[in-house]
Structure formats: C-alpha cells, structure tokens
C-alpha cells in the first residue's frame, strides 16, 4: 500500500512562502522530488508512518536483545597467591600516618584491592580509634589525579631521567660544598630517619627541617622550660576524673585525638556510677566542647585568664600580670576549680594554644595537681609533631630573598599551601637551583618544583613508625603500586647512590626496614629466638607496644614571672583557625567522601565558612535561617594582609567577638591537580572557573596564621565585613533543636541517674485507655511479625553518651555500602544518599536539657531561641528497622518488606520508585536515587565511580543501586549474612562479635552495639533492657529494632532535677518499656 | 502477463515440493541411529574415533574384526564392560590388550543392546560430506538441535504460505477465465487486498474468531517468550579450552572440590587456576594430537615448556574463560552456604559433571532426573528455581551439614521454646524448610 499519493506530493512540491522569505537559505528549486533525488528512495514505501513502525520494532528488538546478557568473561589467576581466595576478604594490619594523625588500622582487601579501612582494636596505642580522614584514605588511593609518572618541569618522564638529573645536580652541589635542605613533615619512621642520615652522609652539607602544618611546638617549648624536657607527653584521658581543656579539641584534631576519644569515652559510662567531669573553655564550638559537661565561652585572648584563675583556684600560685577579673566569676571556672581540687592528681588540664606561656601555666596547674604521676607521662613522650618552626620560618625568609639553599627536597609536606607566606614562597622556589618534591600529586609545592618524584600512597608501601616512645608500628602494602611511583625513601637512597631502582616490584625500602628491625628491634627483645618469627609477628600485628616507663613528676623549673607579656593579644574580632573532622589540614581535599561528609556541628558539606556567634550574626543582618533556597550571607575577613570572602554560618556556642574558619580548604588555588573533588562544580556538572583555572572549594586559612610573635599562632586577630548575597549552602540538617521532644532525645544528669529510677529520666510511653494507662507497645494495628521467636532479631543499641559525633561511622558506612557521592547541589536539595546521618541537636532556651521542655515554653522559642552557649547531643540516625514499619505497608510492589530476622529489607529490583515509603518514614532515613550517579555528567567531577580507578573501591558484596530506586540502611545485611555463615560453618550458634555492621565496627568508643536480640545474653539485649534504653518516637508504635541510651551529663542542672521526678506506673508493672514479650 | 504468472506458480510449486522432500529427508535423518550415536559420544568418543585410531583403535569394523580373529562369543561385550575379564578368558581379547599401553576404561553399566547399538552406529557411520549430515551429527548437542528444528519449521511455514498463494493464484486465474468465458469480456482485475477484504467481510464471524484466536495465542506465546528472556536454558558457551569434565571427574574420578577448591570457603566455587591444572598436567601430556593441543594451551598459559628442561619461562598468559553460570549483579549466591553448610551435592545444581564435556547450564529436567536430587520444575538459574528448592529443602533438627548443627539446633530450640504453635505449623509437612527459616526473604540474596 504505497502512500506516495501524487496529490500530497504536489502540495509538498509547492514553494512555501516560508522558504521564499528566507531567500538564499532554501533555494526555491529544491523540491522534495529533488531532495529525494534517488528514484528508489522515492519509490520506497518508508514514509513517516512506516518509519515509526520500524522504529518501534527496532526499539522493541533492541530491548529484547539487551535482555540477553552478553557473554561474561572469567579470568582466574595463573598462579593463585596462597592467601587469596576469590570472594573472601583479607584483612591486613597496617598503620596510618599522614604527619597530622596516627592510627593502627586494619585494611580490608578483596582480590587484592583495598576497599575498606577500620581501626585496629587489638594492638597499638590508638585502641581502634579512627578519624574520618583515615577511613576515607582508601578512596584517595584510587584518586585519578595522583601522579602516574615522575615529572620534570611539569612533563611526565622516566625515573632514570629524573634520577640521572637529580644525582648530577646534587653531585655538582656537593663538589662546591653547596647546601641541600630537606623539608619534611615530622618523620616518626626510624628507618626513614636512617635513610635521610644516609643521604646526609653522602652529601655532607644537608639540613633537615621538620615542619608541620599545625604545630604543637608551644607544648614542647613549655615542657623544656618547665621540666627541661623537649617533649610532648603522653596523656591518659581514661585516668582523668576531671578534664579541663582550654581551647584544645582533644576529641578531634588535637594531637592523638583518635586515641584520646576512646580513652575519654571509657570514663563516660554512667552505669559505672561515676563519670569524668569535663570542662571546656573555648571560642569555637569544638567537638570536645560539644561533649563537655561544662562549657565556658571565652575568647582565645582570655585563655590566659581562665588558666590563671584555675591556677590560683587550685593553689598553683598567682600568675602576675594576668587580669582574671573577667573570668574568675564564671560558673564554669568555679566548678572547674572545685572539681580539680577534689580529683587532685586524677585530673588533666590541657591547652590547645601554640603559645608557650599558656602551656607553661597549664603545666604549672597540672604539676600542682600532681597529674604528672597519673594522667600525664613525660617519660613516654609522643614523637610526633616535632615542627621546627623557627628553622622553617628562616628557610622561607631566606628563599624569599634568594638566599635559600642550593637544593631543596620537599618530602611529605606542602609548605606553599600550609605556610602563611606560601603564596610568595611558590614564586621563590624557582630561585633555588634544584627543587624536588616527593608529593603524590602535582600539588601547590610540587607544581613549583623542577622535579616531582611521586611517593607511593601509604597503602602501597612499607614503612615503620615510632609515634610514642613505647610503641612501634609497621605499615605494610596492601596493593601493588597502581602507578609508576616509587617510595620516597627509595628515592633518597637512589640519590645517595645506595640503591638502584627496581621498578614497581622494588623491595629496596622493604629490605632496608627489615635490616633496621633486625639490627635495632630484634636485638632489644627476648620473646622471639629468631628474627623471621619476630618479623612475621611484627608485621602481623603491625603494632608493637612495650610497657611504658612509669610517669614521674620532675621539679617545675619554669618561671611564672614575665609570662604575661608573652601571651596572645586580643582584638576586635578574634579568628580561630580549627580543623574539621572531615578535612583536617586538607591532605585529602580531593576526596569526595570527605568533602561530602557533613561537619559534625554545622552539618554543612562541600564548604568552608565563617562560624559566627548566632546572636551577633542575627543582629548584624546575616541570614541565620538557612535552607535549600536561603543561603548564607557572605562576609570578607581580613587578617593582616590577607582578605577573603566566605559565607557566614551562625553557630550557637561561638563566643561573642570571635569567628572560626576551618583549615584544609582552598586547596589547589592555581588549579593544581590535587583531586577532582577539591574544586567547585557547577549546578549541572563541570567546574566553576576563576581566571581560567578550576575554582577551589573554600579559602586557604593557613594564610591567616600569625607568625609575628615568633611562633605559629592559630588564634589570630582580624576584622569581618558583611558583604551580603545569597550563597547556597548544602547542609544535611538545617534545624537546630530537637523542639523539646523527649521521644527523640533524652538527657539527664549523672546525679539524677544515680539517685532516681528510670521513670524519672526515661519514662515509658503510656497511653490512657478506659481501663487505665497502658504501655504503648500493647497497642497494635498490625499482627505481630514473629521476629521475637524465630531465629535472630538483629538490633542496635546506640549510646548517646559514647557518641562523640566524629563522623567516622559515616565514612565507614559509605565505604562499606557503596553509597554514592552526589555533590553540593544535590545535597542542597536534600538529596544526599548517606544511609547514616548524625543528627545534632542544640539546646534551646525553652528546654531544660536537649529534648526536655520547660513547663512553660513556646514552640517558636523551642525552634529559634538557641541558647548562646548550648549543650549538644549527637544522635546517629539510620533505618530503625521497625517491626511494624510504616514504609512496608505503603509499598505498592512489596519491594520493602520485613524479614523474620527483624530487618526491614529493600529489594532494589522490585522497587518502582513511587517514594511512598520515604514519605511514610517517620525517621526520614530513606534515600531515593534521583540520578544515574555512576554515569550522569552532573557527577563526573565528584563521583568516584565515574572512573575506572575510583570504581575499584566498591564493595563487591553490595549492589550499586541504580536510578529510580529507594535505598536505605540495610543494617549491613551482607555482614550479617557473613557473620551467620561463620557461625554455621563452625557449627555453633551466633555469638556477640560474629556479626558486626560498618558503623559499629568503625566506632572505637563503642557507641554502637549490634547483636542478636533474641539471644538473651547478647550485649545488645542486655543494653536494650537497661535503665537508659529508649526508642526514638516509641509512641507511634512502629517498634524499631534500634535502641538509644539516654545521654547523661555530669553536671548540675537544678531545673532538670526538679522536672525529672520518679513516677508510679503501677499498671505497667515491672515490665520494661519497648520489650515485646507480650504476644 | 498471465502466462508468466502461471509459469512462476509452476516453478514455485516445484521448488516447494523439492523443499518438502528435503525437509522430510533431513528430519528423518535425525532419528537415524540416535541411540548408538548418543552412547558413542557420551562414553567412547573421548578415546575412540569411528574411522581412525586415536587413543583407542577405530570403531568401525571392530565387530567383524573380532569375529574374523576368532574371538569367543560375547567376548567383545565383556571387553567393553571390563576389558581385563575378557582378556583373562579369551586369547584374542588378550592379544587386543597389547594394542596400546593405555588401558581402556570400564563400562560395566552398558547393556548388550546398548553395546550393539554403539557398534551399529559405528559400522553404519559415513564421514559427513553434506551439510545435512553435519547438521544431523551435531543435533545431539542440545542447543544446535533446537536451532535446526526452528529452521525446519520456518521452511515448512514458507512452504505452506507458498502453497496457499499458489492455489489462490490458480483459483483466481480459473475464476477470471470463467468470467471471461461467460461474459466474453475480461473482468476488471481485483487486487488481492480488495478480494481478501470482501471475502473477510462476507465471513466476518469466522474471521473475527480467527483473529481473536491469533491475537490471544500471540499474547500467550509472547508472554511465554518474554519469560525465557535471560533464562540460560542449556547455555553452553564455547571455551578457549574444550575442557572435558567427563574425563577428569568421570573417568579419572577427580573430586570436584580438588579443582573448584574454594567451594567450601567462598561465595564462588572458583575456576581452577592454571597452577592447579599443572599439578597433574606437568606429567599428563596427552595421548593424541587433540589432547596434546588442548594441554598445550595450559602450558602456554602457565608459561611452561614441556619440550625443554621442563621449566617455567615466567611468561604467563591467563586463560579467558566464558562464564557459564551467570547470575545478575543484584543476586548474591554463596557456595559455602550451600555446599559446606547446606550439605548439597554439586550435581543438585550442576548436573552429573562426570558425563559432561565443557560446563553448561543443565536444564532442570535433566537435573531432576538425577537420582538423589531435589526435584524441581522451574528453569535452572532462575529465581523460581532457587526458591522452589528453598521451599523443598529441609533443615532438620540434628546434623544437617558437614560441620555439625550447632547453629541450626539453636534455631530449632528457639522455635520450640518460644513459639510451639508456629513450629507445629512449620512441621505440618514433617519438615522445617529453608523457606520457613527465611529462605524466601528478599535480603537473603539481594543486597
């Protein structure tokens, strides 16, 4: 049936006016006849309708053809490594050290790929404590912008070429007795130090400067003055009954914070009848401040006064020249003095300032209290943080004026980024005859060097460490080097003529370490008779701890006179430079997991900002009520000669007259290739550009460091000017308070907990019925799931007292469950994919404690009137695995349903994406896949799954969810199945420890406990029946499998004491709340 | 014009008749000596070829040779079942035993008529010359058979359409002729379409029913066809090395777990690594060229030089196998759970590999025919197949697996102690099945 109807053709052939009017563009002769010049084409019956038929057919055919899976290839090993079984994970003990933090870690590898990092709880000095950065470093390994070859003047080249050039230049310098400077971070590796001394021996005139981005030199100098010991002592927060911290965020960033967190949490279990009492004096709301029992808001310039007042109060003497009048009547100071006096030697006072005078006063207080025999051990010093500030400042000064050394080698350090005058340094490096960097990226410093000899990633190389006097660690490689890189130590040895390159399989440095351990380690121990066994054991544990020398209290020798003149000065606006849990000092700014991790307090992702006193910000007209559309107001900060613009986040708890700016942002200011995620992206993909370069996220706060007083001060003075604007902010939580809802957060004091029964601080939810009050669990809309009887019932207990809000669990969850990164714009729209979040609640003025309303309150005040110095509760929130789950009943396709092990399971392939479940979830923990994150162009810059390397980090046991489906916490069902299988294979019931989930595994403070609730002896069962156990939103009757433990603060709260009275629930009897044993 | 049409019809008819005859021949050739051929390929072909000697002597004419050689009555059958018995009794058989140092495998299970069928096949066998014969020869391997069948049906369909058209054409010509005869004038030629339309209108009830039936059956068949999408029925991809499972697991009796050695430790059973092959094949170098060729591929992969001093060159080249049992990405399957804990035999899902060549997805009918297997009906490797088994398989209170039952005893105890009613409900069919303990739940396999 041809449809080449001549009538129609005539109509088409007619010259349309439209064409005429356009003149030349469509020549009038060109008719359809001519256009379809080919006779056959005209005769062909493929007209529009047939074309559509063919199209339809081919689409259908293509669809069907696509259903047929392509041939899959399977390539087994030729010779299988003995310890690798495909499908079974191997865990290797190793060590993490980045110059700023240290931990003994366990690395999970699958078929030779590291895919997950957790803390090593069995060995070492960090008790399994981890930071988000450490957990996320496994992704940094696969960063596509890491250097793949050595560089010469920015061009990729071969090792033989760079080695030849460098050796030639060094030889020339040696022959004229020129000076070679090695700038590194603090090296705690005994073998590396030996390598550098070998190098120095070869070239003679070698200066080694150790320099840390964040320096603790003040502590060392103070201890030198006080006790004649140039050390940072070991602190033991577990032994301290009273902890006073003045500006030291010892739970995040300060020294060995990851270890201190675990020690700290050990002494915060109210079931023991006592808890440590923690006082924090600070300007920024820090992690330590958020967890403190008493928090005093002071400016950094008042730290001295606080310390002096405490010193005077505890009888350490009056420090002349310090005016304590402004602080000595602060309730927190008085309480602190009282507590210190009663706990005496079981006290610990720490100060976060890098100012020597402040540290001397701190020492004096500790000395007077007798802490040097208990909580502080000068005899077991920390070997980290040996920053030689003076030498470094001189080096920079010399280089700037062209009087630098003849050659410089930067190893593990990035001074162009981290020094206050780094911008000038970047230009001046070229004045040095030979400049070499061993950086893994062509970073700010490396980009200015002639040669870049990229070091391995820490997971690719051997190393050894001695972070504390009594402890040694080993880092072992968990993957063969991905790129043509070489360990920096090998480079030094090659340049010194002591070794030759051996390619990627090189064992040069491994053999070197082994020899050192044979000579130095093996000979000093008696446990092992042969070195081989000793070495194997050392590598297996990767941590070797020998008993520490007992602490002793030497004479305090420092003079307290004249300290007053050396204290930090105040000013109009005092700027506190701090480290975020996610970003630290910016070593992994290109890591999208860390960029997207919400800040512990502000909950802001992908950004650097100014934290400002809430009331001040409000009064000055800054936008304090942020949401999707209402961004932050910009302000410009000026410190010294540096000025830059940042958005302002009004932050409860920020001391008036101070602001805070996080370090670690503003990486790659000149568009250096330091990782794709370090740069701002546009709304629909692609980078935002500034002057033709990728615009970095945030601003570099290292530029603000004040060195005018001869030391690096991170508390500086500047000014702020409001600019305005509406800067979009991507935060995962905009609301600030719990609105006084005790069904979400419950808080009490240690005193109440000890003296009253649980009906006072943890009352059951009772409903009034015609025959009296009944517990909410007695009312059911649904028939019961048989989870209490059959098999297992997986449950979590989350202790709000042990959760310090660090966020390591967030990264662990992301890493374990292949959670996609979605970028700033998506987070702003509330489409973040994180399965686990940590809700942060500030106390409002109409609350007695977080979650407990005053008798008289207004909802407006509950929402907006945040206390100026509020207490904070962190509440990890994930799928509650409700046994009567509201999400399950509304799913039209039963894609989400309940397992008889109590899991709310999600079958992605059934899900049709109606999102009813998310709307019906009272906890708002469900996440919808809006996009094809591993392919859509919007996420190219930030989603690691978009390149072949980044995909290697995916956990092969967990599906990568596709667009259009719901997802949420599965309670790591893959790990549950794995744990059960271990028990089955051993022919025994499941016991505690078999089954773990990523968040619980990552949490070294044991805030999260997982177990089988049906096992009456399991830890989680016992916890769920404890006096502090409650369930979030229990009154709605969804029967979650997650229990929370009431937050207990060790402070006086008269209002709360009056409100939390014991009640009589006679009808309820002795049954606990939340138990479901009634069916 | 008319003549040309008639000629065309005549030609087409001839062609069609030819096609029918051809199809008939080729269809009948399928059944010819099928039994003997199947037995030969299953049991003998590893060592014997029909027309030439390989590991064993050529099969054609063996019967006659034995008769001529003066072998005892029934001696040949005895030889096939156990050559050593025959050799002990019969001097001719004893002489045959010296033909090769390699001893023949024993086939005690073969019946007399089966042995005869094999020799019948061998004696009547002719080398494949035509494509038809080759098709017939290959038809024994499942997937090919199906394909050639469907071609036959398509051909038959074309033939029928051709016949209908031809008959219709003839009828039209006759009709025109009649009209022309009666009226004297040639009628206006109606097009086929017009004619069909008017005919359909006249018989609209009949046509309506036919259309309904066609549409309905189209939907039914379409639905059934869609159900086979992604079903690997008898999927047997070609492999870089045609690995004969029957020789390794059958003739040589190597335990499956020797090569697939992570089956009790991992989610995957593990494709053997080349070093496992080399454990034996360093010494076993193959009897004939065909075997040597295959084994040479192992040597190439392992970087082993059998001719030289027997050492490894270090130049390895992994073997790229084609995966046979392919599960979708969203399915988690764990061999350890099923083999070590569940105590399942490999053949429950993989069939009797002692009789298979390269691995294939054994159809469920074949699996269910195997003794000791749980009988299932849904296609192999589909979700229906998995959960059907989970609904059947018992998890007893007592030893259920190779490693003891401590885990499941506790599960049973909890049921007995906490919910007797439920336990009794489960026990209605006298067993607690995997399903009843949660084996039908989504998150057991999908996460």
From TrEMBL, chain B:
Keyword line: Heme, Iron, Membrane, Metal-binding, Transmembrane, Transmembrane helix
InterPro entries: Cyt_c-like_dom, Cyt_c-like_dom_sf, Cyt_c7-like, Multihaem_cyt_sf
Pfam family, one: Cytochrome_C7
Gene3D superfamilies, A to Z: Cytochrome c-like domain, Cytochrome C3
PANTHER family: CYTOCHROME C7-LIKE DOMAIN-CONTAINING PROTEIN (PTHR39425:SF1), LIPOPROTEIN CYTOCHROME C (PTHR39425)
Occurrences of domain Cytochrome c (ranges): 31-126
Keyword Transcription: no
Origin species: Wandonia haliotis
Protein name: C-type cytochrome
Residue ranges of the TM segments: 151-170, 206-226
């Amino acid at each position: 049936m041809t449809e080449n109807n001549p009538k129609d053709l005539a109509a088409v052939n007619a010259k349309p006016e439209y064409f005429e009017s356009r003149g030349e563009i469509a020549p009038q002769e060109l008719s359809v006849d001519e256009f379809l010049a080919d006779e056959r084409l005209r005769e062909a019956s493929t007209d529009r309708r047939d074309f559509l038929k063919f199209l339809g057919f081919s689409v259908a055919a293509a669809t069907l053809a696509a259903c047929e899976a392509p041939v899959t290839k399977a390539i087994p090993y030729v010779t299988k490594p003995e310890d690798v079984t495909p499908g079974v994970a191997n865990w290797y003990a190793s060590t993490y050290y980045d110059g700023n933090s240290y931990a003994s870690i366990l690395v999970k590898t699958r078929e030779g790929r590291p895919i997950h990092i957790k803390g090593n709880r069995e060995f070492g000095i960090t008790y399994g404590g981890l930071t988000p950065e450490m957990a996320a470093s496994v992704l940094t390994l696969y960063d596509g912008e890491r250097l793949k070859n050595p560089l010469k003047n920015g061009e990729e080249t071969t090792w033989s070429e760079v080695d030849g050039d460098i050796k030639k230049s060094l030889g020339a310098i040696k022959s004229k007795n020129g000076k070679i400077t090695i700038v590194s971070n603090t090296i705690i590796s005994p073998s590396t130090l030996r390598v550098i001394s070998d190098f120095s021996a070869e070239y003679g005139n070698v200066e080694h400067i150790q320099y840390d981005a964040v320096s603790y030199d003040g502590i060392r100098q103070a201890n030198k003055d006080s006790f004649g010991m140039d050390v940072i002592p070991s602190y033991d927060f577990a032994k301290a009954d009273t902890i006073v911290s003045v500006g030291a965020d010892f739970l995040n960033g300060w020294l060995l914070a990851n270890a201190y967190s675990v020690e700290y949490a050990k002494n915060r279990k109210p079931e023991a009848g006592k808890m440590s009492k923690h006082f924090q004096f600070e300007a920024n709301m820090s992690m330590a401040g958020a967890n403190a029992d008493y928090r005093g808001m002071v400016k950094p310039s008042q730290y001295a006064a606080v310390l002096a007042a405490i010193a005077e109060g505890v009888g350490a003497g009056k420090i002349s020249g310090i005016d304590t009048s402004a602080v000595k009547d602060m309730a927190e100071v008085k309480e602190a003095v009282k507590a210190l006096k009663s706990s005496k030697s079981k006290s610990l006072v720490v100060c976060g300032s890098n100012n020597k005078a402040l540290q001397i006063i701190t020492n004096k207080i500790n000395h007077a209290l007798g802490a040097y025999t208990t909580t502080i051990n000068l005899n077991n010093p920390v070997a980290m943080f040996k920053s030689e500030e003076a030498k470094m400042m001189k080096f920079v000064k010399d280089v700037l004026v062209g009087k630098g050394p003849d050659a410089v080698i930067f190893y593990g350090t990035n001074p162009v980024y981290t020094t206050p005058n780094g911008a000038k340094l970047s230009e001046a490096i070229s004045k040095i005859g030979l400049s070499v960097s061993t950086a893994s990226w062509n970073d700010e410093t490396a980009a200015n060097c002639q040669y870049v000899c990229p070091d391995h990633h820490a997971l690719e190389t051997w190393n050894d460490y001695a972070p504390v006097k009594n402890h040694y660690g080993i880092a072992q490689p968990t993957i063969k080097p991905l790129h043509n890189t070489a360990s920096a130590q090998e480079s030094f040895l090659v340049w010194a003529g002591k070794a030759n390159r051996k390619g990627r399989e090189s064992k040069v440095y491994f053999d070197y370490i082994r020899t050192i351990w044979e000579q130095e380690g093996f000979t000093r121990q008696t446990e092992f008779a042969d070195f081989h066994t000793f070495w194997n054991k050392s590598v297996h544990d990767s941590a070797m701890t020998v008993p520490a020398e007992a602490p002793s209290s030497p004479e305090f020798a420092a003079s307290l006179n004249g300290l007053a003149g050396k204290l930090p000065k105040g000013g109009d606006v005092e700027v506190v430079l701090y480290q975020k849990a996610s970003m630290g000092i910016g070593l992994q700014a290109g890591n999208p997991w860390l960029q997207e991790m919400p800040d512990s307090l502000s909950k802001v992702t992908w950004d650097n900002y100014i934290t400002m006193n809430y009331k001040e910000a409000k009064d000055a007209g800054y936008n304090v009520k942020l949401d999707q559309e209402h961004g932050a107001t910009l302000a410009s900060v000026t410190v010294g000669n540096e000025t830059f613009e940042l958005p302002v986040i009004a932050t409860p708890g920020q001391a008036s007259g101070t602001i805070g700016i996080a370090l670690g942002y503003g990486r790659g200011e000149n568009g250096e290739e330091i990782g794709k995620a370090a740069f701002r992206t546009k709304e629909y993909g692609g980078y935002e550009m500034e002057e033709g370069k990728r615009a970095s996220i945030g601003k570099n706060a290292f530029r603000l460091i004040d060195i005018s007083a001869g030391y690096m001060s991170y508390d500086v003075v500047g000014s702020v000017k409001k600019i305005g604007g509406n800067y979009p902010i991507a935060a995962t939580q905009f609301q600030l308070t719990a609105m006084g809802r005790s069904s979400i957060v419950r808080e009490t004091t240690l005193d109440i907990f000890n003296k009253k029964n649980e009906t006072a601080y943890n009352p059951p939810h009772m409903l009034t019925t015609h025959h009296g009050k009944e517990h909410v669990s007695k009312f059911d809309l649904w028939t019961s799931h048989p989870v209490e009887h059959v098999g297992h019932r997986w449950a979590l207990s989350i202790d709000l007292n042990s959760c310090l809000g660090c966020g390591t669990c967030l990264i662990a969850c992301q890493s374990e469950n292949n959670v996609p990164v979605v970028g700033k714009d998506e987070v702003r729209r509330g489409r973040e994919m994180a399965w686990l979040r940590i809700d942060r609640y500030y106390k409002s003025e109409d609350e007695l404690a977080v979650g407990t309303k005053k008798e008289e309150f207004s909802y407006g005040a509950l929402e907006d009137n945040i206390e100026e110095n509020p207490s904070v509760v962190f509440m990890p929130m994930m799928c509650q695995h409700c046994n009567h789950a509201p999400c399950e009943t509304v799913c039209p396709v039963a894609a989400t349903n309940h397992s008889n092990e109590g899991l709310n399971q999600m079958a992605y392939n059934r899900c049709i994406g109606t999102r009813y479940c998310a709307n019906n979830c009272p906890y708002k923990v469900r996440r919808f896949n809006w996009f094809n994150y591993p392919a859509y162009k919007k996420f190219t810059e930030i989603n690691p799954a978009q390149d072949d390397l980044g995909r290697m980090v995916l956990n092969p046991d967990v599906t990568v969810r596709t667009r259009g489906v719901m997802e949420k916490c599965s309670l790591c069902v893959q790990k549950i199945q794995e744990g059960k299988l271990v028990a089955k294979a051993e022919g025994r019931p499941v016991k505690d420890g078999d089954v773990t989930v990523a968040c619980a595994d990552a949490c070294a403070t044991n805030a999260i406990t997982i177990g089988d609730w049906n096992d009456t002896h399991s830890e989680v069962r016992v916890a769920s029946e404890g006096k502090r156990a409650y369930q979030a939103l229990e009154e709605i009757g969804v029967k979650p499998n997650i229990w929370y433990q009431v937050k207990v603060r060790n402070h006086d709260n008269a209002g709360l004491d009056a409100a939390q009275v014991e009640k009589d629930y006679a009808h309820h009897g002795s049954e606990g709340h939340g138990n479901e044993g009634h069916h | 014009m008319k003549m040309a049409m008639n000629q065309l019809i005549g030609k087409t008819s001839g062609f069609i008749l030819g096609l029918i005859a051809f199809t008939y021949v080729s269809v009948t050739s399928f059944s010819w000596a099928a039994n003997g051929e199947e037995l030969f390929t299953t049991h003998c072909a590893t060592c014997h070829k029909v027309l030439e000697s390989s590991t064993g002597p050529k099969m054609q004419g063996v019967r006659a040779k034995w008769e001529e050689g003066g072998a005892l009555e029934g001696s040949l059958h005895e030889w096939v079942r156990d050559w050593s018995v025959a050799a002990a009794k019969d001097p001719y058989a004893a002489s045959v035993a010296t033909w090769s140092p390699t001893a023949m495998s024993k086939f005690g299970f073969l019946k007399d008529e089966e042995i005869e069928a094999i020799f019948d096949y061998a004696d009547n066998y002719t080398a494949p010359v035509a494509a038809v014969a080759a098709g017939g020869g290959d038809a024994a391997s499942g997937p090919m058979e199906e394909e050639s069948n469907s071609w036959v049906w398509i051909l038959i369909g074309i033939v029928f359409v051709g016949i209908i058209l031809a008959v219709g054409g003839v009828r039209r010509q006759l009709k025109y002729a009649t009209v022309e005869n009666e009226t004297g004038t040639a009628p206006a030629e109606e097009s086929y379409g017009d004619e069909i339309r008017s005919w359909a209108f006249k018989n609209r009830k009949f046509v309506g029913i036919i259309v309904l039936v066609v549409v309905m059956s189209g939907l039914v068949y379409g639905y059934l066809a869609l159900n086979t999408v992604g079903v690997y029925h008898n999927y047997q991809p070609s492999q870089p090395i045609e690995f004969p499972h029957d020789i390794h697991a059958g003739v040589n009796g190597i335990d499956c777990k020797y090569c697939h050695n992570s089956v009790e430790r991992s989610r995957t059973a593990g494709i053997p690594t080349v070093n496992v092959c080399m454990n034996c094949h360093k010494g076993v170098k193959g009897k004939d060229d065909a075997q040597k060729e295959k084994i040479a591929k192992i040597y190439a992969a392992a970087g082993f030089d059998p001719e030289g001093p027997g050492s490894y060159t270090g130049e390895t080249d992994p073997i790229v196998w084609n995966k046979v049992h392919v599960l979708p990405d969203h399915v988690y399957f764990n061999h350890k759970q099923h083999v070590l804990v569940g105590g399942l035999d490999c053949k429950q899902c993989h069939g009797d590999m002692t009789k298979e060549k390269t691995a294939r997805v054994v159809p469920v009918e074949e699996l269910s025919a195997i003794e000791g297997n749980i009988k299932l009906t849904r296609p192999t490797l589909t979700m229906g197949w998995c959960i059907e088994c989970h609904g059947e398989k018992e998890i007893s209170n007592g030893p259920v697996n190779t490693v003891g039952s401590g885990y499941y005893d506790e599960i049973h105890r909890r049921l007995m102690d906490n919910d007797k009613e439920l336990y009794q409900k489960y026990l209605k069919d006298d067993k607690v099945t995997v399903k009843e303990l949660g084996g039908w739940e989504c998150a057991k396999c999908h996460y």
